[in-house]
Amino acid sequence: MKVQCVICDQQSSLEDGSPLAKKLRNRPIHTYMCENCHDRIKANTEARHTSGSFQLYSYNTKENDF
């Protein structure tokens, strides 16, 4: 199965029977990201997290009495 990275547009091939290929084939909302882009984003996120400028936003929801 041929796939293309959504960030750098690098084309790769996956085995048809691999779990990632099955996930991409059965659920079109899932996107493929190559290992280089995945590692780069992971390193940048970890650096932001350690610097203290990383925030997770939580939404306050009201509970219904029903």
Name its key features.
38% helix, 66 residues, flat, two-stranded antiparallel ribbon, mainly alpha, single chain, 2 helices, 9% strand
How would you describe this protein?
- The chain has one domain.
- The chain is flat and about 50 Å long.
- A hairpin with a 6-residue loop joins strand 1 and strand 2.
- It contains two helices and two strands.
- The chain starts with a strand and ends in a 15-residue tail after the last helix.
- Pfam families: DUF2197 (PF09963).
- InterPro entries: DUF2197.
- This is YlaI family protein.
Shape summary: flat
Low-confidence stretches: none
Which percent range fits the helix content? 25-40%
Q: Distance N terminus to C terminus?
A: 49 Å
Q: Write the H/E string, N to C.
A: EEHH
Strand order of the largest sheet: 1-2
Helices and strands: which structural class?
A: mainly alpha
Number of domains: 1
- The total count of strands amounts to 2
The fraction of residues assigned to DSSP E strands is 5-15%
Largest sheet, in brief, is: 2 strands, antiparallel
**Cα-atom Rg, whole angstroms?**
18 Å
Overall pLDDT confidence: 87
Number of helices: 2
